[in-house]
């Protein structure tokens, strides 16, 4: 009572404003922190061929920078008063401001063919390391200052974490919807710098008020007097934070590998991840733990039988299931984190160990897993680990736990023995029976939903079965690189060998042709297909043979078998693993039979083609990562680069087939701006896969002169490319993936 009476009216009014001020400062800090993530990653993406892994590795950097920022904040709060800590923090903010505006560091040139992930982390560190660490320290630092205030809400400063995560969520929502479609990267960087200055002012005000309204027991002293945190508690904090971060990276990779590596898809899982903090870091969570536990089996059961099994036939439905499971499992882990939170004196230590867990989860999912597993097995592993955090998992002791999980795990071992030891394959005719078995497993999982250990073990069994078998397809070879997962698969009837990148077919060869003289081109490249027609029409317009041809994207090397006579063909490929597959005659025979002397240039085609100083009569753009066409290969600057390497009467063939993005209008807009002649064709043949593996394609041809494309008038299906004024051309500074997705879904 004495303290309350000693307060002046001005002091009381100021105290009332403190929570709002701190919440607003945390909101702005988080807003800037999570705007810089997609913005800068988009700046870097073209240097790495638009690979989905770029975002995964970027997440590792972000988690490591958060750890650095949290460690720094932990030291300031424990060792210094707010007034002294603020002076130190302002020095850091000033140093960070000196590095603005945000740009890609000029110290880094082209990425290396090996160690790309480490190179990328170095690039992020040199370019945005200092401002990112300064921003990441703001949340624990401000909460630590708030915990020492003479204010009743200071007893639970964790509620401010919700304000911070709301700012993060707002940034991730705003970037693809408001920022990216309307602002160039340069404008985004300038706007971000202005926001950084505003934040510095808010932090200054918060620091001044914190120094004036400290409670009797100062925060550093209270932290020093608190008992040491037991190591088991620290490890639990770390584990419960690591699993959701790993899941965030895994589910993002799952989504982006087939649609596009672009901010509007990156931010969806990350925004949901942050929203789970807002939902459960409070005394009255949005969803109770009992409700989450009830919902988890409903989404995990179908995920367990569909995640690793074959192609994504119902892509958007699977995305919804994946995101729902991801949110619920993350809610489980974060609710448990909040339940195990320490007293406010240990707040910065708590966040420090959470950030350590984030780094561990990121390192596992983005850096370690691609070297440990030839397939994305880290995703189901993380799902099972999250299930192990369900309430009631360990309440009945180790013996009961072992008895619960033993039967499904024994069945999992039997499945491994049957597949690997006895080489038991499933023919295509067994697909229906196999699907019935999987549905039965999912049904059994639902019946066992109230026994968490048994449910988790059955999920393990489902993951094993779907990873080991895909009826009708037998895996011959699998390799994983920075640019994705490549699988060489034989059909069960022994007629075709296929190359998959992710879930997309990138080439096929008749097994009867392997070892022969000249295999027949299949998939998109059969002679009567759109690509074959385009090459032949251009060849005819130039006298029958082409002098030099450049092909961007190698795949199985099928296009090499469309070469004629003494034509000089050069392939440009960014992924060394693809080159090894295409060059290996025991896997595919196209290169060894049709173009054994063809040159293959490693590296990003925009850079290597520009550095070649060769002029080509034909350039074929056929670059994919799963079903994704790298955005930076379809910008205005990219087309200008191709044209600079094209002979006056040459032509540019662009293969733009995509299940999810409408790209023809983007190419048409660039062609119109460059004054090019453009023709396009969309095959409408009846699907022939898997009978003869001839695949429909959408192809656009660009040339400087209509004379170069005169022969296309005699080929059915080719028509001038119309320009839609509502679709803006993409540039290195601007692209609208979201708009391309909407146009495809609208049937354009």
Q: What attributes characterize this protein structure?
A:
748 residues; alpha/beta; Growth Hormone, Chain: A; Rossmann fold; 3 domains; 8-stranded mixed β-sheet; 12 strands; globular; disordered N terminus
* Multimerization state: single chain
Count of all domains? 3
Tell how many strands the DSSP assignment holds.
12
> Biggest β-sheet: count, sense, barrel?
8 strands, mixed
Chain-averaged pLDDT: 84
By CATH's scheme, which homologous superfamily of the largest domain applies?
Answer: MFS general substrate transporter like domains
Query: What percent strand?
Result: 5-15%
User: Counting H and I runs of at least 4 residues, what is the number of helices?
Assistant: 25
User: At the first level of CATH, what is the class of the largest domain?
Assistant: Mainly Alpha
Cα gyration radius (Å) = 29 Å
Shape: globular
CATH topology of the largest domain: Growth Hormone, Chain: A
Which ranges are low-confidence, i.e. pLDDT below 50, for 5 or more consecutive residues? Answer: 1-6, 216-225
Task: Report the helical percentage.
Answer: 55-70%
> Cα distance, first to last residue?
71 Å
Main-sheet strand order equals: 7-6-5-8-9-11-10-12
Backbone structural class: alpha/beta
Give me the CATH architecture of the largest domain, please. Answer: Up-down Bundle
Q: How would you briefly describe this protein structure?
A:
This protein is an alpha/beta fold and 748 residues long. The protein contains 25 helices and 12 strands.
């Amino acid at each position: 009572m004495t303290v309350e009476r000693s307060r002046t009216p001005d002091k009381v009014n100021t105290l009332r404003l403190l929570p709002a001020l701190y919440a607003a400062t945390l909101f702005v800090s988080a807003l800037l922190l999570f705007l810089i993530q997609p913005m800068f990653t988009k700046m870097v993406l073209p240097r790495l061929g638009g690979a989905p892994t770029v975002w995964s590795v970027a997440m590792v950097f972000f988690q490591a920078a958060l750890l650095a920022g949290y460690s720094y904040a932990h030291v300031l709060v424990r060792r210094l008063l707010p007034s002294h800590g603020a002076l130190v923090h302002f020095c850091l903010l000033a140093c960070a401001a000196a590095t603005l505006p945000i740009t890609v560091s000029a110290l880094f040139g082209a990425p290396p063919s090996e160690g790309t992930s480490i190179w990328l982390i170095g690039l992020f560190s040199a370019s945005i390391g200092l401002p990112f660490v300064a921003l990441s320290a703001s949340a624990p630092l401000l909460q630590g200052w708030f915990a020492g205030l003479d204010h009743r809400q200071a007893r639970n400063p964790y509620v401010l974490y919700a304000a911070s995560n709301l700012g993060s969520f707002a940034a991730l929502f705003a970037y693809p919807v408001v920022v990216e479609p309307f602002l160039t990267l340069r404008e985004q960087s300038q706007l971000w710098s202005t926001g950084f200055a505003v934040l510095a002012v808010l932090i200054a005000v918060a620091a001044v008020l914190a120094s004036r309204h400290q409670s009797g027991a100062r925060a550093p002293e209270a932290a020093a007097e608190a008992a040491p945190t037991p190591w088991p508690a620290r490890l639990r904090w770390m584990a419960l934070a690591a699993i959701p971060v790993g899941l965030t990276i895994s589910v993002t990779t799952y989504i982006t590998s087939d649609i596009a590596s672009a901010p509007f898809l990156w931010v969806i899982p990350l925004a949901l991840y942050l929203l789970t903090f807002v939902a459960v870091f409070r005394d009255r969570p949005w969803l109770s733990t009992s409700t989450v536990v009830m919902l988890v089996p409903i989404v995990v059961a179908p995920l367990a039988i569909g995640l690793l099994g074959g192609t994504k036939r119902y892509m958007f439905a699977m995305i919804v299931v994946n995101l729902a499971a991801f949110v619920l499992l993350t809610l489980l882990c974060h609710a448990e984190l909040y339940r195990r939170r320490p007293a406010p004196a240990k707040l910065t230590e708590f966040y420090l160990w959470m950030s350590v867990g984030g780094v561990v989860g990121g390192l596992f999912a983005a850096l370690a897993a691609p070297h440990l597993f030839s397939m994305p097995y880290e995703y189901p592993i993380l799902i099972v680990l999250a299930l192990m955090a369900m309430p009631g998992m360990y309440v009945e002791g180790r013996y009961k736990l072992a008895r619960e999980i033993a039967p499904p795990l024994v069945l999992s071992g039997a499945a491994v023995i049957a597949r690997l030891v006895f080489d038991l394959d499933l023919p295509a005719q067994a697909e229906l029976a196999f699907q019935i078995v999987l549905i039965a497993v999912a049904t059994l999982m639902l019946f066992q939903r109230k026994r968490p250990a048994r449910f988790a073990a059955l999920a393990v069994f489902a993951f094993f079965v779907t990873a080991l078998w895909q009826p009708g397809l037998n895996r011959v070879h699998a390799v994983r690189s920075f640019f994705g997962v490549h699988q060489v698969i034989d059909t069960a009837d022994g007629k075709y060998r296929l190359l998959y990148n992710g879930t997309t077919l990138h080439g096929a060869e008749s097994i009867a042709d392997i070892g022969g003289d000249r295999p027949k081109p299949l998939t998109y490249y059969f002679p009567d297909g759109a690509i074959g027609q385009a090459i032949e029409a251009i060849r005819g317009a130039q006298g029958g043979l082409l002098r030099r041809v450049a092909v961007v994207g190698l795949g199985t090397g099928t296009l090499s078998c469309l070469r004629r006579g003494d034509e000089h063909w050069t392939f440009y490929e960014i992924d060394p693993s693809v080159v090894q597959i295409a060059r290996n005659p025991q896997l595919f025979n196209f290169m060894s039979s049709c173009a054994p002397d063809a040159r293959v240039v490693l590296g990003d085609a925009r850079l290597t083609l520009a550095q070649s100083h060769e002029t080509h009569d034909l350039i074929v753009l056929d670059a994919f990562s799963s079903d994704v066409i790298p955005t930076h290969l379809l910008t205005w600057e990219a087309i200008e680069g191709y044209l600079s390497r094209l002979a006056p009467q040459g032509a540019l063939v662009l293969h733009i087939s995509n299940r999810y993005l409408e790209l023809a209008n983007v190419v048409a807009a660039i062609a119109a701006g460059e004054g090019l002649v453009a023709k396009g064709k969309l095959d409408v043949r009846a699907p022939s896969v898997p009978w003869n593996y001839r695949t429909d394609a959408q192809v656009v041809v660009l040339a400087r002169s209509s004379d170069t494309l005169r022969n296309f008038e005699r080929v059915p299906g080719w028509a001038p490319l119309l320009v839609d004024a509502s679709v803006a051309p993409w540039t290195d500074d601007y692209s609208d993936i979201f708009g391309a997705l909407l146009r495809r879904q609208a049937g354009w």
